[in-house]
Design brief:
The complex is a heterodimer of chains A (398) and B (467). Chain A has a domain of 244 residues: SGNH hydrolase (Rossmann fold). Helix content of chain A is 41%, strand content 12%. Chain A is built from 15 helices and eleven strands. Chain A is globular, with a radius of gyration of 26 Å. Chain A starts with a helix and ends in a 6-residue tail after the last helix. Chain B is an all-alpha fold. Chain B has 17 helices and no strands. Classes of the chains: A alpha/beta (398), B mainly alpha (467). Chains A and B meet through α1, α2, α4 and α10 of A and α1, α2, α8, α9 and α16 of B.
């Protein structure tokens, strides 16, 4: 590599040896470079198709009055995990049309943890619930994952009746990767003197361009375009472009959500959130808390989440309002201790951080199946078997 | 301003346009000087004053040395340059380090010197060594003093290599300023080619590896032996691609502007002994240390013991040059000991001219060199000795822990190993990407596309900026 040698004389050798070709007309060289650009772009198109996240266009779903992934679209995710998600109607992953399914259904609500573009459709928690349940029990059940990144309890509050209009659910399970999910709009909600939910429309910027690029599989153009034009930021440094002289301005600390924000949360706020959600439906609302544990910090495997006390506080509020609270902290930790595998994180991101991997989804699915079996005994195989036994005799005896 | 920023691309384009339009050499040099100062002031204009002080001081010292033959006066002049330059460097880079080191000794006596909140000026180690080489060479009468202050200021502040080298010698650079530089398509191509290589190494390889390396080093005790070995290998690749990437971009940029800088790296990971490694790694620094420290100390001319001592002193100071921390001192001492050990073995082991023996010796030499270099990188990268100790313990005790193979790390290692191996074999001429070959545009555009569509996570300044 001439570049790595850096020796000007060395670098110049091969070029000078063919000086007669350098003296070709400029049109010849322009053509050569143009062809080179086309070939390189074609190669990149093929590489990007495999290695790059696809563009996820969102369209307005009239029934929900929300922007969702169009039915029939696929989303290839490579940044964290390695999977393709197929969307059905109403922005629901891995189910073509929930309106057509006749089985009893449970809804798993959540943000990107439930949408789970990081794992394949069959490994998502909803699909695993369905698979595990139907393997164990003879009465079928369909779990529906209704998730989209950045959604919170405020979104569930507005969406829940709309989805119930489409199809009835036995119960609604709110899957929380962190307690932020019950603090809508982050810090704003917890600092308001009067609590309230705001219906938010998250419209993606440049939806037409996204659709166009997605249609022609041109996702490799998106990153440079968005960095250079869309975001007005330096694509390689992720900093705002500037030309004036330094000293570099000290960036104001980004107001990011951390678990310490929970210190500010008044229990009344959570009381309001749980009550509001429960009032939107006649079926049980269950809160399932599956935090990012265990995780690695300062060279140690940390098994207890620092927000555990707040989770217990929230659990108490749920019970007080008649909602069940399922805590998977211990199950996640026990799984790590038994297998050495993290329920969170991927090899191409970071273990113990990020989103649930296939193990995390499975553990949640098992817990959901156990809960549903307990809460709805009429669905359990044993009860079904008992019923069949009464009618047909003892068919299941060994 | 970083080479990977759009602002730099704008500055470079404006500079090239100016050089194409203006043929007057003096105007060109003045423009490049102003552009260089803008480049530096973009980070923090206040520290431009330090460059100006160094520049003015050494220019005047050079003029003074020219005007006098009095040995004593010449020594005073040299001493002035050393005190001013090393004083600035010492204050901004080493003040807190020495205060903290002495504080443990003085605190029992009730003395509390107190550290200062000092910002390390970017590139201070590089331009200080550069300007010192000028005064020392003039003092030794190996170089004619520069007569023109703007020329000298451009030598010190030339923006492609100002903040992270290569450390340019006045004898190599000043003569290039006396004649108008030719801008040609071929030179432009060569510059762009080298810049793209550097950009690819920095952004696509080094910055993407940084994510994995940073995480594992920060949690050194948590990962198992395989992951620990993998991360050290990755750091070796990261620092190489980061620093040699910067050098490539600097050399490429200079070439685009019509100037030639010397190579700074020559595939260091194919070195078969430690001496060979230092002839390939950060060549401009190793030759500086050799010419201005090791040889004046006596080099290898005063017996074996003195040679070992000289090697140790040179490398320890080389380590300290990298950073004001004990881990850099230890890293320098480690390399010094390795160089001394290599000399000892070379003088006590049979040479052997039989072909199989030479091949075995080269393979064993390469393995040992890599082992020494990798262990050295652990100390270089670790923030504390405890962190380094944890990682080394995990590496050498087959420790249990979290197993993590970062997929990109595997790809990068194979890629770099393949490329370095190719360099060792020298079987292919296509690696040079000649201007006229059909595949050169394809590969260069491919590298550019890869940089653009796979940007790194977050902001990763060049590792050597901290030095």
């Amino acid at each position: 590599m001439a570049g790595s040698n850096g020796n000007p004389s060395r670098a110049a050798q091969p070029d000078c040896s063919s000086a007669e070709e350098v003296s070709q007309p400029i049109g010849f060289h322009l053509l050569r470079w143009a062809i080179g650009f086309v070939i390189a772009t074609a190669l990149i198109w093929a590489i990007a198709w495999f290695f790059l996240d696809s563009i996820r266009p969102h369209v307005l779903e009239p029934h929900l009055a929300r922007y969702v992934a169009p039915a029939g679209s696929n989303y290839r995710f490579r940044s964290e995990g390695w999977a393709v998600t197929h969307y059905g109607k109403y922005g629901i992953a891995a189910i073509p049309d929930i309106g057509l399914a006749s089985e009893p259904k449970i809804a798993l609500w959540g943000d990107s943890f439930v949408e789970a573009p990081h794992v394949a459709d069959s490994l998502k928690m909803a699909q695993q619930v369905t698979a595990i349940w139907n393997r164990k029990h003879s009465k079928p059940l369909l779990a529906v994952g209704i998730g989209r990144g950045d959604r919170t309890v405020a979104d569930y509050h507005f969406l829940l009746p709309w989805y119930e209009e489409l199809t009835p659910f036995l119960c609604h399970i709110i899957v929380m990767g962190s307690l932020r999910d019950v603090c809508p709009d982050g810090i704003w909600f917890v600092t308001q003197p009067e609590y309230g939910f705001v219906s938010r429309q998250r419209r993606q910027p440049l939806p037409e361009l996204r659709l166009f690029l997605d249609r022609y599989r041109l996702e490799f153009l998106w990153t440079p375009y968005w960095s250079l034009v869309g975001e007005k930021r330096n694509p390689l440094t992720h900093r705002v472009i500037r030309f004036h002289l330094g000293p570099l301005p000290v960036a104001s600390p980004h107001h990011r959500w951390t678990w310490q924000n929970l210190e500010q949360v008044d229990s009344e706020a959570w009381n309001f959130a749980v009550q509001s959600l429960s009032r939107r439906t006649s079926v049980p609302v269950v809160f399932l808390y599956a935090p990012r544990v265990p995780y690695i910090d300062s060279g140690q495997i940390i098994r207890d989440h620092p927000a555990r006390d707040h989770a217990l506080r929230f659990a108490e509020i749920c019970r007080h309002n008649g909602s069940d609270f399922i805590d998977l902290t211990d199950r996640f930790v026990a799984f790590y201790d038994e297998t050495g595998q993290f329920p969170i994180g991927f090899a191409n991101s970071q273990y113990g951080k990020g989103h649930y991997n296939k193990y995390g989804h499975r553990l949640i699915a098992e817990e959901v199946c156990d809960y549903v079996a307990d809460r709805f005994p009429e669905l359990r195989a044993e009860r079904y078997r008992e019923l069949i036994k009464e009618i047909h005799g003892d068919l299941f005896e060994d | 301003m970083l080479f990977t920023q759009i602002e730099f691309a704008c500055l470079l384009c404006v500079s090239i346009l100016f050089l194409l339009m203006v043929k007057n050499n003096r105007a060109r040099k003045i423009y490049l000087l102003l552009a260089s100062y803008y480049f530096y002031a973009y980070w923090d204009w206040r520290f431009l004053s330090l460059i100006l002080i160094s520049t003015l001081c050494d220019f005047l010292v050079g003029q003074g040395l020219k005007r006098t033959d009095d040995h004593r006066r010449r020594r005073y002049l040299l001493l002035t340059s050393l005190v001013v330059n090393l004083g600035i460097l010492g204050f901004f880079k080493y003040y807190n380090f020495f205060i903290e080191s002495f504080e443990t000794l003085l605190s029992p006596l009730g003395w509390n010197l107190g550290t200062l909140n000092i910002i390390l000026p970017v590139g201070i180690s590089f331009y200080t060594f550069q300007t010192l080489s000028y005064t020392i060479d003039v003092y030794r009468r190996r170089l004619t003093p520069c007569e023109d202050l703007p020329d000298f200021a451009l030598f010190v502040g030339f923006f492609p290599q100002l903040v992270a080298g290569p450390i340019v010698r006045a004898a190599d650079f000043l003569p290039q300023l006396s004649t108008p530089r030719k801008l040609s398509w071929l030179r432009a191509f060569q510059g762009i080619r080298q810049f793209i290589f550097g950009l690819f190494k920095k952004v696509f390889i080094a910055d993407k590896l940084a994510f994995f390396v940073d995480e594992v080093f920060a949690n050194a005790g948590a990962y198992d032996a395989a992951t620990s070995w993998l991360v050290v290998l990755c750091y070796a690749v990261q620092i190489y691609c980061d620093f040699s990437g910067y050098s490539d971009m600097a050399i490429g940029t200079a070439r685009l502007l019509g100037y030639d800088l010397k190579e700074n790296f020559r595939h260091p990971y194919i070195a078969v002994d430690m001496g060979d490694f230092w002839r390939r790694w950060h060549i401009s620094l190793s030759t500086w240390l050799r010419d201005y420290l090791y040889i004046p100390l006596g080099g290898n001319r005063k017996g074996m013991r003195r040679t070992y001592l000289n090697l140790m002193v040179t490398m320890v100071l080389g380590g300290l040059w990298h950073g004001a921390a004990l881990n850099f001192v230890f890293w320098g001492a480690w390399h010094g000991a390795a160089l001394a050990g290599q000399r000892f073995l070379a003088s006590h082991l049979p040479g052997g001219s039989v072909q199989p023996w030479r091949v075995v010796r080269r393979i064993v030499g390469w393995l040992l060199t890599m082992l020494v270099v990798l262990v050295g990188w652990v100390f270089f990268r670790a923030e504390t000795f405890v962190q380094a100790g944890l990682l080394l313990r995990n590496m050498f005790t087959i420790a249990d822990g979290v197993f993590w193979v970062y997929p990109f790390a595997a790809i990068a290692l194979v890629l770099v190993a393949f490329w370095q191996g190719l360099m060792a074999t020298r079987i292919a001429s296509w690696r040079d990407l000649p201007a006229t070959s059909w595949y050169t545009p394809v590969i260069l555009f491919l590298l550019l596309w890869l940089v653009l569509i796979f940007p790194p996570r977050g902001f990763n300044p060049f590792i050597y900026f901290q030095f």
